[in-house]
Amino acid sequence: MWGEDSFITQYEYGQMLYNTPRGIGCVHCHGAHGEGAKIATYKEDGKRVELRGPDIRKVSIGTLKKSLVKRHRIMPTYFLTDSEIEALYYYLHTPQESE
Prior knowledge:
This protein is α+β, with helices and mostly antiparallel strands. It is 34% helix and 13% strand.
């Protein structure tokens, strides 16, 4: 699927999916490259609480697939195909190309 005659590379496809998969992108909660990001700050019982998206750079492909198909309290369900999840995984686990 990702040969020399491809319109975009697997990295570029994964990056595109990461930034805008379907609706809100992974980038908003998991950071520019999966390192995790602040989602919101709020007060609970008088204490400041920070809600953060987890670092997903070192998760396995199996863990990523399981996480993307199950329902979460906060994270949307994206209904990605196996090849889309594999492209996301490739993007997260490949040294960054020139952007």
